[in-house]
Design brief:
By secondary structure, the chain is mostly helical. The protein has 19 helices and three strands.
């Protein structure tokens, strides 16, 4: 078996096309790793600096009315995952920045795909993309004739006469092609190791991602050898393998995405905003303390403090109404956001089902989950940003209720002195918490990777079964 593998490698080494293909893929993978790492580092620095600038701008506001601060808002930026340099996942398609303000839940903005031309949507040059799409092509063009060549030249019959068994022949061919796969895998794995080494917590995820891609390329090695053994001619093997690659790497992922989007349609932002505005009108206007929708809240508040009139409350009723209105609208925002997130999760589940038809989808799902660049990471950011927004606005509403006198608040539009007295000191802004995103833990990432890894191992078993079938066919031919 190993002599056959050595002879196959020697033949590849004498072939100029093999050298060109391997070197080209190595260089492409190295360039992809270098450019992706540089882009990820720049993006990480830019977002950290933007977050620091946003926090600083918020804290440096002058003395202001708390409700003015509610509407001036602040920005939060999603941090870059350390492994995003290897697998950017959905990050380029989703927004990275959120503007947080009272009474509204804004969409994330500044997604790379949204801000770029449509041409970038055909695929980014990243180590993950090179391994998912281009490495299998190299294995196909180097290995499509690995067995058919022996049959066409008559060398296969000579191997039978020397006592070689079909399993030994196929095993040797697979070992040789697997060696090429390891060489092709090396630059991307080096990039993954460097990215994982930058954060010790990423070691487990980086190791599992490496295992996923090793399994993925092993699947392609076995498929190439098996199809070459089952085909009667090199031309037929090449056509069959290119067809398999086209279906598995191009058609199924694109078709599954289109089907998922149609099966679980998400409403457009304008439609959602209109529905939100319609339901928000039914809640009432929290800027108007006399709004009839808040009559029950007024009665509860008066009973809570044991007074008969709003003027007798020890706190500013306008601030209490703002806090109640924010709680009601935030609950409304959360319901709509959860509904949208659930539909997106359903789309993701359809993609997981489709991975049974494509190992490329399975390895991509595992890779994104391990790198924390999948849909769940984006939803986690949105949920944490909304929780931070609600807490921040309610702290400001509390200041409004406790630090601003009701008489001054009611007369500030007519009395310049009252308007000045409604401004709380700027020290309050510095005491507000800063946003800190909490990514998925290593254990959560392992759990998220499990379905994709399971599908990959299933594909590996199926590929081994195909090799066994081709070995049986060769055995029949030898007899």
């Amino acid at each position: 078996m190993f002599r056959i593998a050595a002879e196959e490698l020697r033949l590849m080494a004498r072939t100029r096309a093999a050298w060109i293909g391997v070197i080209a893929l190595i260089l492409l993978s190295a360039v992809a790793a270098a450019t992706a790492a540089a882009h990820s580092a720049r993006e990480m620095t830019a977002r950290l600096e933007s977050q620091a600038a946003s926090d600083q701008a918020f804290e440096r506001q002058p003395d202001r009315h708390p409700h003015r601060v509610v509407h001036s808002g602040t920005y939060v930026h999603r941090p870059v995952s350390p492994l995003a340099a290897f697998e950017p996942g959905v990050d380029p398609f989703t927004g990275t920045t959120l503007f947080l303000e009272g009474h509204r839940q804004n969409s994330a903005t500044f997604g790379a795909m949204r801000e770029s031309s449509g041409l970038i949507r055909f695929g980014q040059l990243t180590p993950a993309f090179v391994l998912q799409a281009l490495a299998p092509l190299l294995l196909i063009f180097l290995g499509f004739s690995t067995v058919t060549r022996e049959r066409e030249t008559g060398a296969l019959r000579q191997l039978w006469l020397h006592g070689a068994r079909p399993t030994q022949v196929l095993g040797g061919k697979a070992i040789a092609l697997g060696g090429v796969a390891l060489v092709a895998l090396a630059p991307a794995m080096i990039a993954l190791t460097i990215a994982g080494a930058s954060a010790p917590a990423e070691a487990t995820s980086a190791g599992l991602i490496a295992l996923a891609y090793f399994t993925y390329l092993a699947i392609w090695v076995l498929i190439v050898v098996a199809v070459s053994a089952l085909s009667r001619s090199s031309r037929g093997a090449l056509i069959a393998l290119v067809a398999v690659w086209s279906v598995a790497v191009v058609l199924v992922p694109r078709g599954a995405a289109a089907f998922a989007a149609r099966a679980e349609q998400t409403p457009i932002r304008v439609e959602t905003d209109l529905l939100l505005a319609q339901e928000a009108r039914q809640i009432g206007d929290s800027h108007n303390p006399d709004d009839p929708f808040f009559a029950a809240f007024r009665a509860r508040t008066l009973a809570q403090y044991g007074v008969d009139r709003v003027e007798d409350l020890p706190v500013n009723y306008r601030g209490l109404v703002s806090a109640e209105g924010e709680a009601l609208t935030s609950g409304l925002f959360t319901r709509y956001a959860e509904r949208t997130a659930e539909r997106q999760r359903e789309q993701s589940r359809w993609m997981q089902f489709a991975s049974v038809l494509s190992p490329a989808l399975a390895v991509r799902q595992s890779s994104m989950a391990g790198a924390a660049t999948d849909l769940e990471n984006h939803v986690r950011f949105l949920e944490q940003a909304e929780a931070f927004r609600f807490d921040l606005i309610q702290r400001l509403n509390r200041l409004h209720a406790d630090e601003v006198r009701a008489e001054d608040d009611a007369g500030r539009s007519r009395d310049a002195g009252a308007e000045l007295r409604t401004r709380v000191t700027a020290d309050n802004w510095a005491h507000m918490p800063d946003f800190r995103f909490r990514p998925a833990t290593p254990q959560e990432r392992v759990t998220a990777m499990a379905p994709g890894l399971a599908v990959l191992f299933g594909w590996l078993l199926a590929a081994l079964g195909l090799v066994a079938l081709s070995a049986r066919r060769l055995q029949e031919d030898a007899q």
